[in-house]
User: What shape does this take?
Amino acid sequence: DVQRSLVLVKPDGVRRGLSGEVLRRIEAKGYTLAAVELRTATPEILAEHYAEHEGKPFYGPLVEFMLSGPVLAVVIEGQRCIEGFRSLAGATDPTAAAPGTIRGDLGRDWGLAVQQNLVHGSDSEESAAREIGIWFTEL
Ligand code: CMP
Assistant: This one.
């Protein structure tokens, strides 16, 4: 099925100037960019986006990190792009992420309270629909 997925270049990725590199990898893989917008999150958006992590020990630091600078919000499109982007992104922990992946090639552990792992990608069709609705109210 042709799917859409919400991808975020998190504040660490934008700060390090890796937005273009992430978009390049998405396009080189053959997915289409359906929407791209640089924006600063709000506590309200993050409460919705990270609802499933509320109460976890890293939740507070995660929200603080996500508010620390602009993020690049992207909607990508293509056959099985949800699984495909997660495969491009690599494992959550950038130290463990395989070389060849975004996190494996470009990320590392900075010894901070939250894993600053450069990108987010939706994990299911249900989350993708929910997250696209949160970040792009017009889509
Ligand atoms: P993501 O999977 O996009 O959404 C939840 C985020 O929380 C995750 O990326 C990491 O940035 C962060 N995270 C997840 N697990 C941990 C953890 N055990 N310790 C610190 N940060 C985490």
